[in-house]
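Aggregate trends can hide what the representation actually does to any particular protein. This step matters because it turns folding into a mapping between discrete strings. For completeness, the protein is quoted in full, as a sequence line and a line of structure tokens:
=====
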Amino acid sequence: QVQLVESGGGLVQPGGSLRLSCAASGFAFSTAGMIWFRRVPGKGLEWVSRISNDGAIRDYGDSVRGRFSISRDNAKNTLFLQMNSLKPEDTAVYYCAKGWSGDYSLFPRGQGTQVTVSS
């Protein structure tokens, strides 16, 4: 049974940084592509980033490219999202999910972690 637990969210000022973590269990993490997406208030779901099983391929949405960095530690079954230069429009609930392509809203995901960017 896939289990994903996000952590690391919180309140941060514009321009600040946060690092999200996603602890995975119940599946072979090192063989799975993983993604981050977010639920933005009033706008719905937005795909943020994805990483291949070995970390060799990393893709980003236009709104976060150059500011966010996805990574993973397969030895620790953990996925990360380093978020820098945060903006108020990054405010959202962030989810990690197991998957690579297709309708990410259907991928197994965690409960989410709230990120609020505000002064």
User: Anything to note?
Assistant: The two ends are 40 Å apart (CA to CA). The first strand starts at residue 3 and ends at 7. Strands lie at 3-7, 10-12, 18-25, 34-40, 44-51, 58-60, 68-73, 78-83, 92-98, 113-117. The chain has a mean pLDDT of 97.
